[in-house]
Specification:
The chain has 387 residues and is an alpha+beta fold. The chain is built from eleven helices and 13 strands. Bound molecules: alpha-D-galactopyranose (GLA).
Length: 387
């Protein structure tokens, strides 16, 4: 990969020293739509991700080039012009991160040439954008010697996404990528950012991701709508109970106060947030106790809750997951990420993986009319410089 990047970099930006970096993508095993509700999540970094090749410049120019969008050519900007521009396309992510670092007192002293190449399918919900953000964080920390740890890098990257790009996401994706650890998932409490690594020992099974290949549509606006519904439900609960977030409630506590929520829809949304958080805590306990069967059952329940109470699945994700549940050797399967399209995650016994891909793929094609893609993935490390 380094050789390929080096050749392309020199062809695009000219001879000289080049430094290489990598940041992973992520998949969330359980704990969906809990991160902006002060709940827990359990994601892990992947071995697929975004590669970067960079070189500092002697002037203030920023030049960006992506090997995924070669036809777009070079995008030019400057460290004094870190503003969101629609036509700047994907470069709004690295520019947003540079802007967020500057807002927090870490200003770049020169420009750079920046090339990237992503191996995460675009728009699949495996966080290609957070991967690019954390890649940029790692690049500028190393190039400019900023004293910023990876937790702060994830906070600044989320700030870039929220305030620069304008997507109101939680901290999960950036944190999972910035703090990734091979063969471990991250049990993160999003209210405090306390976290713990839990080994993912799959005992003869694999993580299989299914990509619905559904074009993204209303996803972002629906995402913000769900956030608003949860915030509203929280306010209603706060009239009778002193809490800061839905993540503080146990199932019993929620049941005791739920009637104060003035609409069925908001009650369902809040129920999901509370129950999913508790499910995530139980799932991590199950994994630690080597009870993979219970972990899988909780994954399935997570999907049902996202389908019926949170209503973020849709025909494509439901078809993939429900077909997965029919298969031999499937320990658990659910949608992952924001929903409304994107990917599913399943834990499948080694010997059943080939049939799983064949049969679930066929059922999906038959019902939806186009094909799904499948990736058997490994849990990888966080961002790093490559030598
Ligand atoms: C997206 C967001 C995350 C999280 C998930 C849903 O991936 O970026 O912050 O809210 O959706 O769990």
């Amino acid at each position: 990969m380094i050789e390929k990047l080096k050749k392309a970099f020199i062809e695009t930006f000219g001879e000289g020293d080049v430094q290489f970096f990598f940041a992973p993508g992520r998949v969330n095993l359980i704990g969906e739509h809990t991160d902006y509700n002060g709940g827990h999540v359990f994601p892990c970094a992947l071995t697929i991700g975004t590669y970067g090749a960079v070189r500092k410049r002697n002037d203030d120019k920023l030049r960006f080039f992506s090997l995924n969008f070669t036809k777009a050519g070079i995008y030019e900007s400057s460290i004094h012009d870190l503003k969101y521009k629609k036509e700047a396309n994907w470069t709004n992510y690295p520019k947003g991160v540079m802007w967020a670092f500057k807002e927090n007192g870490y200003e770049m002293t020169s420009g750079m040439d920046f090339m990237c190449y992503g191996t995460i399918p675009n728009g699949s919900g495996l966080s290609s954008s957070a991967s690019l953000e954390i890649l940029t964080s790692k690049v500028i920390i190393d190039l400019f010697g900023f004293d910023v740890d990876m937790i702060h890098a994830s906070i600044y990257s989320q700030q870039a996404e929220n305030q620069f790009v304008g997507v109101n996401c939680g901290i999960m994706d950036q944190f999972a990528i910035a703090m990734g650890k091979k063969d471990h998932a991250i049990f993160l409490d999003t209210s405090s950012l306390d976290y713990e690594y839990a080994p993912v020992k799959l005992q003869g099974a694999k993580i299989v991701i299914g990509n619905t290949n559904k074009k993204r549509g209303l996803g972002d606006s629906k995402y913000n709508e769900r956030r608003a519904e949860c915030e509203e439900a929280l306010k209603e609960i706060q009239t009778v109970k002193n809490i800061q977030s839905l993540g503080e409630l146990s199932e019993e506590e929620f049941e005791a106060v739920k009637d104060v929520i003035g609409s069925d829809v908001r009650r369902k949304r809040a129920k999901h947030a509370v129950y999913e958080n508790q499910r995530t805590i139980h799932a991590v306990e199950a994994l630690k106790a080597d009870n993979l069967e219970l972990f899988g059952k909780l994954m399935n329940e997570s999907h049902v809750s996202l389908r019926d109470d949170y209503e973020v699945t849709g025909k494509e994700l439901d078809t993939l997951v429900e077909a997965a549940w029919q298969q031999e050797g499937v320990i658990g399967a659910r949608m992952t990420g924001a929903g409304f399209g994107g990917c599913t995650v399943a834990i499948v016994k080694d010997e059943a993986v080939d049939d799983f891909i064949k049969n679930v793929g066929a059922a999906y094609k038959k019902k939806i009319g186009y094909k799904a893609d499948f990736y058997v993935v490994e849990i990888g490390d966080g961002p790093r410089q490559l030598h």
